[in-house]
From TrEMBL:
Keyword Hydrolase set for record: yes
GO biological process, one term: carbohydrate metabolic process
InterPro entries in alphabetical order: Glyco_hydro_43, Glyco_hydro_beta-prop_sf, Glycosyl_Hydrlase_43
Organism: human gut metagenome
A GO term, aspect molecular function: hydrolase activity, hydrolyzing O-glycosyl compounds
Keywords, in A-Z order: Glycosidase, Hydrolase
Membrane-spanning segments: none
Family according to the record: Belongs to the glycosyl hydrolase 43 family.
Full protein name: Alpha-N-arabinofuranosidase
Amino acid sequence: MLDKIPASGGVFAPTIRYNNGRFYMVTTNDTTHRNFYVYTDDIYGEWSDPIEVDQGGIDPSLYFEDGRTFFISNGQDDYGESGVVQCEIDIATGKKLSHSKSIWKGSGGRYLESPHVYKINGRYYLMAAEGGTEYGHMVTYAVSDDIWGEYVTGDNNPILTNRNKAPYIIQGIGHGDLIQDKNGDWHILSLGFRQMAIWMPFHSLGREVFLSPAHFDESGRLFAGLDGTTDAQYEIKGDFVQNELPVFTFRNTDPSVDWCYLRKYHPETTSCRRTSTSFAAPI
């Protein structure tokens, strides 16, 4: 339950993967500082109990190949090396089948996190976030012929960022994940935030999910976005159906106090006392 978890707590960066008819959701419980995953055969149905993995770090991901499962996160490996950390696990139990190993230290940005591994055209692509989730956020990548490395940093990093697009309303783009549509075209899902106005560096909606185009050149280099940036909208080619989204408006003349809080309002944990000139801080 998240109703009493403070801001920036709870689960971090959940990732969904599909393998052999089963969906897996892997994430970090920041309250316990543990990584775990759950699974289901029906994405709209019931999910399994959590299965913990004895590997630290945050923002984990799963990669499946030839009956094997690899667990990727950031942090320190079993030898004390930091970076993007990888180990093989038993997907039925979460137990490690190999020592964890640091396979990439990033392109030089701070806060290396949110790693994902893909095999595309016979090569392994490792994509990650760097720069922190503020205005310096960016998506970077490296490539290897072996899943354990050596991973060579892309010479066109960062491939997606709005850090040099200061006046633009969309900022903080990072934490990318590659997807391929039914036509074989590539896209990157990323997170970011929407400023209240071009020159007002405040945002009230929190992080949103953005979609950007991606492609590979003849040499296998990965490119993303519109000249490496994310816009508020872009046209997707092909025959796609977009479901109508419900619209919510604040027309209630007596809105619930829950709207004033990030989580559910708990009056038993809050008190407010009025003085002659002002309200004292809640305790």
